[in-house]
Amino acid sequence: MKKLLLVLLFIGPSIFSQQNLQDRTFFSEALFQHLSDYNKKADLAYRFNQYDKAKELFEDFTNKHLEGSYMDNFKFHNLKKKEVQLYDYDRPVFLITYASWCIPGKGEIPALNELAAQYKGEIDFVILFWDKREKAKELAEQFSSDVSIVYVDETENNGAYVVKQLKHSLGLPTCFLLSNDKKIMEIRRSVFPALNTDPETAYRENFIALETSISKNLINEYEEVYAENISID
């Protein structure tokens, strides 16, 4: 009887963790099941310049089919050319995708830098550039040291999987708010203030929108997990 208890003690957690992984739906699986239908409807909306309809379709698609799934352990490179996996980040992750030909909305970068400083130690802010290393390094100068910069260079032909899943599926820029176990809590587009908006107003619009999403989707999740770990200890 004692031997049986010892066996269960050592193999039980691994069995349960494997079962939990098997019960998860991953981002790539959800895309495979639902992306084609969404693309057909979205393409039709854009063809007839129905931009509000296209926005509604995006929100409906991400809310119903992608949020609640778990992000795959995608691989990138940091600016030192070292491979970085998404699961290397232990905290909740605010992930946003950019490229040199897709300019962030006015006020977004200052808002991100401020939020990264505010939530340092609680959330990992990760900027993913779809660019060559040299270009990503140049663009990275706009961000504070509290923001982690990674990139995928398609010309090197070594990131086809992540390019297909993260870039070509939803476009860019796209924000992913991920819990510490990489569950997708929210997917959102960037805020794009009107061109004539002054810098301070544009910054405030971005800060309020991003801070609201972070507080709602990441901070509560982080605090609950932290409290559970403390009580277990």
Automatic annotation (TrEMBL):
PROSITE patterns: THIOREDOXIN_2. InterPro entries: AhpC/TSA (IPR000866), Thioredoxin-like_sf (IPR036249), Thioredoxin_domain (IPR013766). Pfam families: AhpC-TSA. Residues 65-213 form the Thioredoxin domain. It comes from the Bacteria. Gene3D superfamilies: Glutaredoxin (3.40.30.10). This is Redoxin domain-containing protein.
